[in-house]
Amino acid sequence: MNQNKREHRKLSEKANPERLYFIDALRAWAILMMLQGHFVSALLTESYREEGGTAYSLWAYLRGVTAPVFFTVTGFIFTYLLFKKYDMGWSNPRVKKGIKRGSLLILIGYVLQIRFGRLLEGSINTSFDIVHVLQCLGLSMIFIVVLYLPFHKSGKYLFQFLLGSITILLFLSNGLMDQWDYGFLPGWLSNYITTENGSVFTMVPWFGFATAGACLSGFFHSNPNRQGFYLKAFLITLSIGILLILQSYEFIRDLGFLIDTPLLHRALDNSYLFARLGVVLVIFAIFILLRNFLAHKIILQIGQNTLAIYILHAMVLYGSITGHGLSRYYHHSLSISHVVLGAIFFLAGICSLVLMTERKIKQLYN
Fold first, then answer.
1. How far, rounded to the nearest angstrom, does the alpha carbon of residue 212 sit from its chain's CA centroid?
2. What are 174-188's pLDDT values in tens digits?
3. Where is the Heparan-alpha-glucosaminide N-acetyltransferase catalytic domain (predicted)?
């Protein structure tokens, strides 16, 4: 059986030698973490949150890493594919695909916030135009395309430098931008910039994680099949990640002493963004190290179907579109044992249904 698995992995790599399978595994991990995080957060009773101690604090921290991983991986994958035909500009097939995919994510994000029961009554829910993860991810992809087009003749390294610089600028300016008044903008547009109206994922700072992943993808595009590449990638990614975790606050503080600007003073409160990116890079490094053990068919399929899994989980857990979800009936009411057991069945059920549906669709069209 083990030999069959190894042969399957070799055949997969031959079929698509340029595909980075550890990224699919990382996407699978991120979506599973997101599902269990949403399930536990929505249904776990309040008393355990207050008395959960170390275990709950660790879970909450890991949950906070999930979204940064998702944004970083999305930027990585999309830009990695964009780099394959970098000098083609508008003719690059990934440009139009990226715009279409980004627009689709934005559309789906808004549709999931519709409650058709309210719509049939002639009204729309007030939270319809709040920006969540899909809208922010979609616009991030479109912005990467917009940044790429003027730079496709300037060389990949300049584009990478631009992407990395944007990450730093967005993380540094996050605190300063929170102070600005966006009342002059239409509500739906200001929701992409400020959390004041209830938006969870605004472009600042979340686009910064996408550009960080996009910047990182350029190094992997150089030649991932070169001997010793993955060892170097592991060591460099791990080292930068640890450096960001341990020294972000001190570096921004010392820089603020040298350059007395409101930007750096406010940025000190947001140094956690750099530390969080460091955690993402450490997770990247772990998946790079374990890449040969993660090429299991089911893991890769989950990683390749994250959008469908996200949509189904939103409908089942939050009642997206229908208004009837688990959180409506069991909001903050389940014990820890019920939540753990429920989360296992929730993950297994959602993923199984999506993968079985995908298999049936392929059978119909093949």
1. 11
2. 988 878 888 899 989
3. 19-227
The domain ranges of the chain are 2-365
Whole-angstrom Cα distance, residue 150 to residue 102?
19
User: Comparing C-alpha atoms, which of 310, 243, 303 is closest to residue 275?
Assistant: 243
The whole-angstrom separation of Cα 237 and Cα 232 is 8
The burial class, CB within 10 Å (0-12 / 13-18 / 19+), for 30 is buried
Q: Which of 135, 274, 300, 148 is nearest to 214 (CA)?
A: 148
Asked if the model's pLDDT at residue 18 lies above 70, the reply is no
CA distances 81 to 42, 245, 299, 325, Å, are: 36, 29, 21, 37
pTM as predicted: 0.91
Q: Is the pLDDT of residue 112 over 70?
A: yes
Distance CA 19, CA 304 (A): 12
Each residue's pLDDT tens digit, 129-143: 999 999 999 999 999
Q: Please state, in angstroms and rounded to a whole number, the distance separating the CA atoms of residues 364 and 91.
A: 32
